[in-house]
Amino acid sequence: MPKKPQDSEVALAAPSIDPAEVEKFSRIAAEWWDPRGKFKPLHEINPLRLDFIREKTCAALGRDPSADRPLQGLRALDVGCGGGLIAEPIA
Fold this sequence. Notes:
Distance between the termini: 38 Å
Radius of gyration: 18 Å
Structural class: mainly alpha
Helix content: 40-55%
Order of helices and strands: HHHH
Largest sheet: none
Number of helices: 4
C-alpha cells in the first residue's frame, strides 16, 4: 500500500531526539570515553570492529583495504551506535 504524502510530512516533523537517551548518555560520557574505565572491553574490541567494517566495505565497493585511507571519500551514516566509538575513528 503506497504511503500518503502526509505520513512522510508527519515523520519529518516529529522529533528524533529522545531526551531520556540524551540524559543517559550525558551522565556516562566521561566514563564512556575512558579506555581504562568500565567500558574498557568496548575500547579493546574496537580495532577488530573497525577492521571488520573496513574489510567488508572495501570488498563490497572494490577498494583496497591495505591502502592508507581505503574509505576516504565515502560518507557514513551512524545510526544508533551509542557513544560514537565506531563513528569517530571512521570519520
